[in-house]
Specification:
It comes from Streptantibioticus rubrisoli. With 257 residues, the protein is α+β, with helices and mostly antiparallel strands. 24% of the residues lie in helices and 21% in strands. A hairpin with a 7-residue loop joins strand 8 and strand 9.
Amino acid sequence: MSGDDDALYVLTAVLLTPAQFPGALGDDYPAACAALDLRPVTRGYGLVLGQDGNGARWTVVTRDTALVALAIATWDCGLPYDLSPGERDIIDSLPGWPLALAVAAPGLPEPHDPPEEEGGRPPLTPPDTERWGPAQRRLGADEVALQWRTWRAQVDDAKDFAAPGEGDGHPAVRRVLAEAEAYTDDPPPPGRIRSSYAEGGARSLRVDGPGWSMVARTDDIAFVLLDEEPGEVLPIGRGPELPALLEALDKLAVRLD
């Protein structure tokens, strides 16, 4: 950004760290960084999305993840917070937004991409989530994790499971479980397995792989979403094998807390 209109009117911010990153951008932390041409450094980044004085979309990348986390937590509590990353912590200002936003800064023109500079990078654009695919599958898994109780209440423990060993099972679910099991012998890139707090001393797991996403609680069942099954959320019963697998995955996970 340059000129008199280079002030950024902040609309939102997200973390891009091994433990927490926009699922729409990739199956793991390095993949999410690659979508923005960023190096997957251990400390991660904060992404600040806003508009300049002309209304153009910009994404400011900062190394001050603590500041961004504080702003997000404050906003989540319904309180105002003036997020202004320090100049020395700003790594880059990227044209466009990597995520879709339904808001705009008041008093400014409608959000639009800034003019492309000769030899510059094209503006960032959100992944296409209009049709079912990897980005929408990951967003769906994020929603299942967020609304766990609602999804769990829809499962009839007596008949709804797609897990091997219960009826004929589901071939794709067998593949997912086998690939998840393989992670215990050959750990995947950071962020493919993430663990966060859940009620009752359990952990909530988010696990991703080629064409699939899993959401699970270490004391309960799991749900799987597949690229090949648009819109479907398949529950996996605990059975004799799932508890040990989930515990093993939790030990490998990047922990959010």
